[in-house]
């Protein structure tokens, strides 16, 4: 039975692929106001603006590729049962070859009925416009968790964290809950690692690689691959 490595990733792991983060100096929330583009009220108030915000991000996703940080996490699968929990709505972990990816905040390549949260359709790189309908005839909306909306995958994510033999945090400012609270489900005895060029406040012992994902993730992966097999 392979040991379980649980990885919590945020926008920082996709930064070197060319996707901007949210709270860095050039971050997305420096260019847009959350309340204008990333809440259900915003969508009701100005659906065209919100749909186009995500259409732009979906188009960008199809211009970029996974980076070394994503690829190193795939390497871990040689020896471990790797479970990625990502806050990202890009599919770069999947493109790199990670086999278990749990999206907390949704996925740009999916849309859903704005009447039935469980009626989800794959849209790939297609835009969503007003008048685009789900199979139930309702308007299609991005399958994204907006601020204030429920995070249905938080329970399975917490269960994964409870069973982690190793826990790695890559590229998240740990600002947004409930995602940031997942670290509290990780057993105290589980070795934890952090890869981020900035100092991120983490309230437990953790081995820090204060550098970009493109170089830092390899160092953590090398360390874990060199662990003696039981
Ligand atoms: N490699 C690793 N980490 C990086 C890199 C890099 N090349 N560049 C930046 N970072 C780090 C930053 O230092 C920061 O700690 O990535 C983190 C990005 O933090 P945020 O911009 O807050 O992104 P994230 O934590 O993913 O935001 C969480 O907030 O807006 C919502 O739903 C959105 O999923 C998002 C959530």
Outline of the structure:
This protein is of the alpha/beta class and 230 residues long. Helices cover 30% and strands 19% of the residues.
Strand content: 15-25%
Provide the domain count: 2
End-to-end separation in angstroms reads 10 Å
CATH superfamily of the largest domain: TPP-binding domain
Q: Which segments are poorly predicted (pLDDT under 50) over 5 or more consecutive residues?
A: none
Shape: globular
CATH fold-level topology of the largest domain:
Rossmann fold
The helix/strand order is EHHHHHHEHEEEEHEEEH
User: Main sheet?
Assistant: 6 strands, parallel
Bound molecules: adenosine-5-diphosphoribose
Question: What's the CATH class of the largest domain, please?
Answer: Alpha Beta
How does the helix and strand content classify structurally? Answer: alpha/beta
CATH architecture of the largest domain: 3-Layer(aba) Sandwich
Rounded mean pLDDT is: 97
Share of helical residues: 25-40%
Strand order of the largest sheet: 3-2-1-7-8-9
Number of strands: 9
The Rg value, from CA coordinates, equals 18 Å
Please give the count of helices.
9
């Amino acid at each position: 039975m392979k040991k379980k490595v649980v990885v919590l990733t945020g926008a920082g792991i996709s930064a070197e692929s060319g996707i901007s983060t949210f709270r860095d100096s050039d971050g997305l929330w420096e260019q847009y106001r959350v309340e204008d583009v990333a809440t259900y009220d915003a969508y009701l108030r100005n659906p065209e603006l919100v749909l186009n915000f995500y259409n732009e991000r979906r188009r960008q996703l199809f211009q970029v590729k996974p980076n070394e940080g994503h690829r190193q996490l795939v390497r871990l699968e040689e020896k471990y049962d790797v479970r990625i929990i990502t806050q990202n709505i890009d599919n770069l972990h999947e493109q790199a070859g990670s086999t278990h990816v749990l999206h907390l905040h949704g996925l740009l390549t999916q849309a859903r009925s704005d009447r039935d949260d469980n009626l989800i359709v794959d849209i790939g790189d297609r835009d969503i416009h007003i008048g685009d309908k789900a199979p139930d005839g309702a308007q299609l909306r991005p399958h994204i968790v907006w601020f204030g909306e429920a995070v249905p995958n938080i329970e399975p994510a917490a269960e994964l964290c409870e069973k982690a033999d190793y826990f790695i945090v890559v590229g998240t400012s740990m600002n947004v809950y409930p995602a940031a609270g997942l670290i509290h489900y990780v057993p105290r005895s589980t070795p934890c690692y952090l890869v981020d060029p900035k100092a991120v406040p983490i309230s437990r012992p953790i081995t820090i690689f204060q550098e970009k994902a493109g170089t830092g993730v390899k160092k953590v992966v090398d360390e874990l691959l060199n662990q003696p097999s039981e």
